[in-house]
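Task card 7
Instruction: Convert sequence to structure tokens.
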Amino acid sequence: MKFTKIHWIGTVFAVVTIALDFIFFLNENIFLFLLGIAVSVFFFPFIMTILVDNNREKEKNAMFIEFTRSLAESVKIGTPIGKSIILMKKENFGSLSPHIKKLGNQIELGIPLS
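Output:
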């Protein structure tokens, strides 16, 4: 996982909140509440990044199954694998489409499948 801008913002905000919490509210009832908020703010961007990445990966896996089914059907009717991939690069396979287009372009240029 890359440390992106949103991670830095969450980290800085959490550190500033913790520092202000220790300076101004050390002996008050709100101290633990603000400390909990700061810790939550620190972890929130990381948790959201993990969830988004997992959802993208699930979508890619589902679309890969659709791609392989389409490829198998195309090969079953007699079209060569390379030609099938070139024809399928125009279809929409969600987040997998850029990879299929790249593969199709490579095959068109003469780069072997292996």
